[in-house]
């Protein structure tokens, strides 16, 4: 980042496939080091899709489940992004998953959208969802739009949440 940029106004330029793969490799190295320190087993898979590097930790045993909670995965992702940024000098949009927790969270988010839309169909003008990460908000925005409803983000920082409205 240049001295004029802050973490909140990072550039949105598209990275090349090679840069995304390099981000994934750096992230995998960092996570592997953390797993070694914590004496946890796990296999690390790297994928590149939709302009992002995806790093997944799978396998291991039930001890890996300690890292699979939503808040732990978010913290691991934040730390990993910082480690990659320290090496590359640019913001990384990589996504980290542990033990399929992202897929489980996506199902939870879809259920939240179902419940919100049911409330709107029953007469409410709008429904506010719980605060969530920018990645989760993006997933919900997409899901809401796909169903023909509107959504907008409100709030700042960790309190930022989505408001779903009738069409």
From TrEMBL:
Domain of life of the source: Bacteria
R3H domain: residues covered: 103-167
Keyword annotations from UniProtKB, A to Z: DNA-binding
Family annotation (Pfam families): R3H (PF01424)
Alphabetical list of Gene3D superfamilies matching this protein: 3.30.300.20, R3H-like domain (3.30.1370.50)
Molecular function in Gene Ontology: DNA binding
PANTHER family listed in its UniProt record: PROTEIN JAG, RNA-BINDING PROTEIN KHPB
Protein name, per record: DNA-binding protein
């Amino acid at each position: 980042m240049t001295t004029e940029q802050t973490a909140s106004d990072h550039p949105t330029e598209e990275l090349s496939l090679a840069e995304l793969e390099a981000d994934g490799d750096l992230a995998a190295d960092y996570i592997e080091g953390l797993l070694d320190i914590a004496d946890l087993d796990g296999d690390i898979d790297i994928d590149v899709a939709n302009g992002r590097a995806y790093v997944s930790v799978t396998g291991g045993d039930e001890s890996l489940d300690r890292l699979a909670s939503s808040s732990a995965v978010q913290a691991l992702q934040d730390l990993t992004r910082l480690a990659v940024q320290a090496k590359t000098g640019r913001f990384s949009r990589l996504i980290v998953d542990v033990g399929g927790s992202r897929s489980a969270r996506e199902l939870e988010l879809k259920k939240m959208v179902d419940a919100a839309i049911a409330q709107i169909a029953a007469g409410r003008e709008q429904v506010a969802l719980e605060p969530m990460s920018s990645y989760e908000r993006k997933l919900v925005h997409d899901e809401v739009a796909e169903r023909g409803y509107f959504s907008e983000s409100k709030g700042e920082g960790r309190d930022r949440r989505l408001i779903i409205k009738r069409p």
